[in-house]
Amino acid sequence: MISQVDPRIVSVVYLDIYDCRTEYDFYNKLAAATLKQTAGKGELILRNVKEFLSRLTPRISFGADPASDMSVTLDITPKDYTPEEILQLPEKIAKKTGKHLVVRIDEFNR
Question: Using CA atoms in the order 66, 56, 44, 97, what is the torsion angle rounded to 10 degrees?
């Protein structure tokens, strides 16, 4: 079904939470995956962090292929954001971009 999604209208945020050990591990992964999928480029991710998660200083690192190998680290803590604020992030970004976001969560080992 995901192959039938029109990327101009819908973005799919894939989230593998197998290695999440705490609640805030999940929130960090959710926020990072949402920002990465909806922005795509380092500069756009920084702009989205500034707009939607302004109390954070993200770390963005690039691999051998910067176009496809990028990681985002946010280090969100309870002092920074409440769970509700992080859980509402995909909806806020969807409203801002005019796209629908589907968050797909995988919690099983492959």
Answer: 130
What total of structural domains would you count in the chain?
A: 1
Whole-prediction pTM value? 0.78
Read off the pLDDT of residues 57-78 as tens digits, 9 standing for 90 and up. 878 787 777 656 778 888 889 9
Q: What is the extent of the structural domain holding 76?
A: 2-106
| 98 Rama sector, left if φ>0, alpha if ψ -120 to 50, beta otherwise | left
Decide if pLDDT at 30 tops 70: yes
**DSSP calls for 13-81:** EEEE-TT--SHHHHHHHHHHHHHHHHH-SHHHHHHHHHHH-TT---EEEE-SSTTT-EEEE----TTT-
